[in-house]
Amino acid sequence: DDELQTDGNRSGHFRNGELGLAPANEEVIRIIAAQLAEIGDQFDREIQERVVNGLVQHFMNENLSNEEITRQMSRAVRELIRAIPSDMDQEKAMLVLAMVLTKKIVNTVPALLRRVFNTTVNYMNQQFHNYIVEMVSAARQ
Questions:
Q1: Might you name a Gene Ontology BP term for this protein (predicted)?
Q2: Are 119 and 22 in contact (CB under 8 A)?
Q3: 109 is a domain residue
């Protein structure tokens, strides 16, 4: 299906309704993705292996509901955000942290791709829907 990219490249297409975005100029999306990827590269070096391994254990536990795993992802992002410089937009930092965590989890256990991807998309929809829409709107202007 669609592929999650954290390197600024776009694999799939944004479809109407996905993240609630109207059809967008591909160049705007590419610019935003490149900016987020740059931030993600910085965060990637700072995320400790224990955080990733803890989330991997939650994702591997089939007894946990999707809601519980989403809460665990949210908790991990909130913990990591404390180490982010305060001059950075907190919502942007949290969005990028969620994507970087997803990448690291899937790199650790590729078999978790579908569950991790679905959880991340749900988390982003719940937490950052308005922020993403605002980011795209601002970039178009």
A1: positive regulation of release of cytochrome c from mitochondria
A2: no
A3: yes
